[in-house]
Amino acid sequence: MSTDPSTDPSTAKGLSDREHLAVLGYEGSFERSMSLWANFALGFTYLSPLVGVYSLFALSMSTGGPPSIFWIVIVGAGQLLVALVFGEVVSQYPIHGGIYPWTRRLWGRRYAWMAAWVYIWAMIVTITSVAEFGSGFLASLFNIAVTKEVTLGLSLVFLVVALGLNFSGTKMLARVARIGLAAELIGVIAVGLYLLIFQRKQEFGVFFDSMGVQGDGSYLTAFGGAALAGLFLFYGFEACGDVAEEVSTPARRIPRAMMMTILVGGVSALFSFGGYVMAAPNLQAIVDGEDIDPIPAILTAALGDVGAKIFLIVALTAFLSCVLSLQAAASRLLFSFARDGMIPGHAWLARVSPRSKVPTNALIVACTIPVILCVTIYLGPEQLLAQITAFAVLGIYVAFQSVVLASLRQRIKGWRPAGPFSLGGAGFAINILALGYGVFAMFLLARPGSSGVFVNDWIVLIGLGIVLGTGLLYLFIASPDRKSDAPSGDAIEIAAALRRR
Predict the structure, then answer these.
(1) Which of 323, 393, 397 minimizes the C-alpha distance to 42?
(2) Do the Cβ atoms of 34 and 243 come closer than 8 Å?
(3) Which of 61, 147, 193, 263 is the most exposed place for a label (fewest CB within 10 A)?
(4) What SS3 state is found at 15?
(5) Nearest-angstrom CA–CA distance, 334 and 182
(6) How many Å apart are CA 6 and CA 15, to the nearest integer?
(7) Can you tell me the distance from the alpha carbon of 495 to that of 93, in angstroms, rounded to the nearest whole number?
(8) What is the Cα–Cα distance from 68 to 221, expressed in whole angstroms?
(9) Please, is 187 exposed, middle or buried when counting C-beta atoms within 10 Å of its C-beta (0-12, 13-18, 19+)?
(10) CA angle (58, 64, 70) in 5-degree steps
(11) 170-184 vs 36-47: helix axis angle to the nearest 10?
């Protein structure tokens, strides 16, 4: 009898991976070489608490003070509800592409088009942003002065190196993801614990002290403004499902990998954020907004020059792994879109390399558009990076909630998820709570600013409006949904078919 879990007929409620995929209407064309830990590593390095905390620590502290750390707990709990809903969906539909096939099978072709259109642009902009932020670390490692030319050149290095690694195949992706996971855990948990235990300069009560950040206003307003500390951090777990057809026993393993990503990522972020707060030599200057890039000074004071350099190497590994995971997830979404004939050039984009078993053409696109965006940022005004990335987080949350809403709609119609991972009778309540959390999160992200400059205050909604508008125009002019005969809106029927098998 075969001991290969991908062919064992008992791995997914009596179905092998190939049989499960056949029930969904597809043939397997990928190598199922990704284990549970590799799948978790992919999601974790995409979520990347090191990148998230480093990018937003100063902003969070100057907006909400030390109590802004509690947003990590609040958002982590909310996103865990979303991940539980995703777990049931991917357990029934372990298909490449994540958001797109899930919304297609739960609702319909047009709905899936818009959800995927928003999601893919949010992912591509996120790839660009991570490469741009990572360039600063690379420049610091070699003591290179950061100029627009240097930022452009080093950002392109990140993108091209990640593309080359992705071209090597799923095994290389899994290997680098595991290395990135180790780097994240060292750079986040180990360094955070060291700062908390050996370099503590504040008492733990500081996390309940606003340190006057609210001025003469209400602290509740200031605390709400710091929500991005958590909202920016907790996505990436969905990438575990983007590569479903490269994971053995995905219907069981991917939901577990998603939960692990949220839980380990949340704990890591808490240690990291807390460590920086406790070890800050001049915390008040950070809260007052006088120190806009405090982490290098904190690390140098705590670890010394050599220790800070070692941390830079660890951080660079995490940034590269994050870009790699983002490219992989975006390419699988493009492949899934193309396989169903829903995007221009679908025949070209749906090709899978017979040697490496990865969608190389989709990978090229997932690298080329960020390259174009990097050049545009170089040629544009100073604030262009912030402006084009402003909608990315909101776009991710809109795409997430499109799945949650479609799932709830199907439950109301009588759908009972048929995958090995099941929430049972609690599924309906968890689905409602996940949707409520998502609406709350999107409200926090979409609120206009108060600077008095229209573009700056409304840039998040402007960016989302542009993406939604262009997507709707293409949808109604080109009608890609009419050119695709792939199955859709079949959650109840597929659940019944899986139960019969």
Answers:
(1) 323
(2) yes
(3) 147
(4) strand
(5) 29
(6) 10
(7) 10
(8) 12
(9) buried
(10) 100
(11) 60
pTM of structure: 0.88
C-beta of residue 464 within 8 angstroms of C-beta of residue 80 = no
What residue type is 334 in one-letter code? L
Residue bearing tokens 């995971």: 325
CA 321, CA 188: separation in Å to the nearest integer?
Answer: 15
Residue-range domains of the chain with CATH = 23-125+171-346+391-500 (1.20.1740.10)
Asked whether 344 and 378 are in contact (CB, 8 A), the reply is no
DSSP label at residue 12: B
Tell me: pLDDT of 29 over 80. no
DSSP states of 40-69: HHHHHHHH-HHHHHHHHHHHHHHHH-GGGG
Phi, psi of 12 (to 5 degrees): -140, 75
C-alpha distances (whole Å) from 39 to each of 64, 90, 330 are 34, 14, 15
Distance CA 323, CA 177 (A): 10
Among 181, 238, 173, residue whose Cα is nearest residue 33: 173
DSSP codes of every residue in 234-297:
S--TTHHHHTGGGBSSHHHHHHHHHHHHHHHHHHHHHHHHHHHHHH-TTHHHHHTTS-SS-HHH
Query: What would you measure as the largest C-alpha separation in the chain, in angstroms?
Result: 73
CA distance 126 to 120: 10
pLDDT > 80? residue 2:
no
Length of the chain: 501
Whole-number Å distance between alpha carbons of 217 and 51: 31
10 pLDDT more than 70: no
Report how far residue 389's alpha carbon sits from residue 128's, in angstroms, rounded to the nearest whole number: 9
Torsion angles phi and psi, residue 247, rounded to 5: -110, 135
* Assigned token pair, 460: 């998040």
Backbone region of residue 381 per phi and psi (left: phi > 0; alpha: psi in -120 to 50; beta: other values): beta
Q: What angle is formed at CA 487 by the lines to CA 415 and CA 253, rounded to 5 degrees?
A: 60
Tokens 């919304």 — which residue?
103
Question: What are the two backbone dihedrals, phi and then psi, of residue 496, each rounded to the nearest 5 degrees?
Answer: -65, -40
For helices 170-184 and 49-64, the axis angle rounded to 10 degrees is: 40
Q: Extract the tokens encoding 259.
A: 């939960």
Interval 239-278: pLDDT, tens = 899 889 999 999 999 999 999 999 999 999 999 999 999 9
Q: Is the predicted pLDDT of residue 132 greater than 80, yes or no? A: yes
**The two structure tokens encoding residue 255:** 């939901």
Residue ranges in 418-453 assigned as alpha helix (H): 427-446
**CA-to-CA distance for 295 and 292, rounded, in angstroms?**
9
